[in-house]
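User: My collaborator and I are trying to settle a disagreement about how two of our proteins should look. Neither of us wants to argue from intuition anymore, so we agreed to look at predicted structures for both before our next call. Could you fold the first one, then the second, and keep them clearly separated?

Assistant: That sounds like a sensible way to settle it. I'll keep them separate. The first protein:
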Amino acid sequence: MDVQTAEGWRFLRARARCGVNFRLQVHLVLYLLYDAGRPIVCKADAKTNLVMKKKTKTTTKALTPATKPAKTVKKTTARPAVKKTAPKVALTTISALIDVGFGNTLYLRGDGPGLSWETGIPMDCIADEHWRITVPESTRPIVFKFLLNDEMWCAGDDYTAAPGSTVTLTPEF
């Protein structure tokens, strides 16, 4: 049965009387009829169920060996890779060899990472006469001075330490 004929439409209406949604079937048929411009044929089987078959054209191409297009190679001059180097971050260690007496602490003030001229940083007591502090991440010279109990300045000019160096000094009070 061809849906494009009046007989096909009568079949669909008869199905609609049996409880199948007629409007849905019509929309389905119209959609299928216009699917890519190819006509669709509906046939009824023995139990009056619709079997949809789509007529399609099949074409075969003659097999030919595949040819690859020639690759074009673009010549470039190799340039050496240039790495951007950030300044090296180095730890600076400042040590003092002095006996400050029992109960006293040696402090450090200055200009550098974590240092200030207004407030001192206590140094670590390594031995009876050995004090040490490590200044992190310094990329420029550190200018500093020692203080006893963060009150009494050491005599002389300010000290300077290069970044990444280890300096051992003997301050006088």
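The second protein, kept apart from the first:
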Amino acid sequence: MEEQGRCACRLEDRPHYEEMVLETMLYSARLKERVARENSAVIVAMSRLMAETFEGGGRVLFCGNGGSAADAQHLATELTIRYRSSVQRPALAAIALSSDSMALTAGANDLGYDAVFARLVEPTAGRATFLSESRQAATARASRMPSWQHRSGD
């Protein structure tokens, strides 16, 4: 019987695991370089729009599915709390729509999953920058919304 909390991998498999880790990390590095080269202007434009939104007293809303939901929460937290300990600034009004599990599950149950983020955007009444796939709902509320999307598998 295997001890609880112990790795079940065999010693002879370790070189294979090291190769898998190396390949995964190198793939990640190549992907980041590609995104930087192909999208730096878009990222700067999105950053400017976010800065204008904060300067105008607005809020920036983030959302995503799965791992992107975790990224949305991370970004909102970095803006609300702070990115670096050396930076002293007031909190910025950033909200991750994907962090309210009750709203997500109730919305998916009552309205359908496709409508969840659109419903959560309704109260903003055009005062927020909205980064998401729910472009139609944000447009109907006159929000400014750059959208960062990825293809499945990228």
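Some points you might bring to the call about the second protein. Helices lie at 14-55, 67-80, 101-110, 116-121, 135-140. DSSP finds five helices and three strands in the chain.
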